[in-house]
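Hi Y.,

Following your request, here is the sequence exactly as I used it, all 377 residues.
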Amino acid sequence: MAPAVRNVLVVGGGAAGMAAAILLAEGGVAVDLVDIKPEASTRGSGITLQGNALRVLRTLGVWDRVREDGYAFDSLGLRAPDPAGTLLAELPDLRTGGPDLPATLGMHRPRLARILLDRAAEVGVKIRFGATYTTLGQDETGVVVTFTDGSTGRYDLLIGADGIRSSTRRTLGMNLQTQRMGMGIWRAFTRRPASVTRTDLYYGGPSYIAGYCPTGEDSLYAYVVEDAQDRSALSPEEALAVMRERTAAYHGPWDEIRESLTDPSSVNHTSFETHMLDAPWHRGRVVLIGDAAHACPPTIAQGAAQALEDAAVLAELLLAAEHLGAGVWDVFYARRFERARAVVDASVQLCRWLLDRERGDVPGLMGRISHLLAEPA
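Below is the corresponding structure, written out as tokens. Let me know if you'd prefer a different format.
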């Protein structure tokens, strides 16, 4: 039985796009992938991947490489913003990917991007960086695009995995308001003190959250969440000074981490943003996945996981169906829409509790989401 699509264009080389491309190519589909960026992502600090993300990475055939390059752990620490950085609790994390995968794994974000890129090339995805499409037209049986170099292509399906500011979403005329949450996050990639063997979160003090996640034997990424403000005019050296100042009230392992923050190029700042596109996420033979359809602030570390789940479910359905019709889309939204919305809503709820200085039931909320995610997408 031939799959519902024989050739596909994927727009965007992040987690969602690479995962969809890999799975479809493995299933015998001819896949072209274009990304407007000039090269594979080399920016970014670290990424926290929970078990449900690791489950998809195993399906992609990259779990062994990810495990080797990352740092796995099974609990979460809560520390006080006091002079000792007192450990208040160590909470076991649910293994949402199943008992044979760790609960959580931290890794260097550019390294994950490289692993996915290498795997896509291995399975025959044709990848072009510094390229995208300039025009898009479609009929009952396919999509025709003109690329930035003037060439054209016809595809059975176009997958728009082009991120929170998706140009594909705009091309389709889907109006979606991306909301700023009123928070910004400083992140830095640096050395891992021997005492850091899991994520610890410090709630309160002068910032909303200060935390860190080990990403390898000798590395971690550290972060601090503040009120949103325009930090774009700061030089790298000024940004580094601000991050050191913002974390001065946090102690315990933070004291050693802060001392290691000496490289201005390791620090970056972004704002928390969110949106949730109502279903359907497709128009004809063009579909949006990942941040293009649903984006959440990183408060429960599920952005990449939800993007990977979108890709895995979509590829599974496309490879199993003989025709690309309502049946495929109905099952796709039945499996993805409410799940993604629950994650977005929970991430936003955590932000609102912090902004309002409200003591919400954080463990209860996290527990409900973990139990939801432990069921495969």
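Residues 74 and 103 are 5 Å apart (CA to CA).

Thanks again,
Q.
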